[in-house]
Amino acid sequence: MITTKSQQDGSYDKFGVSTPGALETDEPWISRFTDVLRKFWSLGFIAFGGPQAHIAILRDELVVKAEWIGEEQFTELFAIGQGLPGPTSTQLVVSCATSRAGPVGGVVALLMWNMPGLIVQTTCGVLVTSFIDPDDPPFYLAGLAPAAIALLFKAAYGFSGQLDKLGCTMALVSCIVSVIIAGDNVIDKGVCQWVYPLLLVLGSVFCLIDSKRENPFGTTYTKAKPGWDSDSDLTFKRIGIPLWVGAFIFLLWAAVLAGCLIIRAATTGEKGGYLALFETMFRVGSIIFGGGQVVLPMLYGEVVDTGWISSSTFYQGFALAQSLPGPLFNFSSFVGGAYLGVGGALIAYLGLFGPGVILIFAMMPFWSKMRHIDWFKAVLVGLANTAIGFVFAACFLMYQNAVTSAASSTAFAVAGVMAMVYKYPAPACIFGGGVVGALLNLAELGQKPY
Question: Where are the transmembrane segments (predicted)?
Answer without folding.
Answer: 107-132, 138-159, 166-187, 243-266, 338-363, 375-399, 424-443
